[in-house]
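Subject: Predicted fold for Dynein axonemal assembly factor 1 homolog, 126 residues

User T.R. writes:
Posting the sequence so we have a shared reference for the thread.
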Amino acid sequence: MSLAVEKPRGICEKDVDLKGPRMSKEFILKHCKEQRLYTVPRLNDVLYLHFKGFSRIENLDEYTGLKCLWLENNGILKISGLDHQQELRSLFLHYNLIKRIENLENLPLLDTINLSHNQVRKIENL
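User M.O. replies:
I've generated the structure tokens; pasting them so everyone works from the same file.
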């Protein structure tokens, strides 16, 4: 007996390896439309992606105008995928699963970061 598994409908793609929703380009664009943000990625200066169940940060390369990024209360395992966020000033990553502070060197204007309620045991790389 085999059960056919239907691809879930909605705005999130499932990531087989990470067992959670993906931060896909399609998801972010649809989310921007729903939040009445710009549909041209580079024009957005804020992005609210909290409480979505993401396990990694990805597909933000086109969002080069971001100044504030909200990613709290997800399942993010690692700080990554922010290399093109040269304008980012505030990054909210509290209540995730991050173990190490890393990959912030390409964020020259970053002055506020919230990493509380993660699994960081040693403050380094700041």
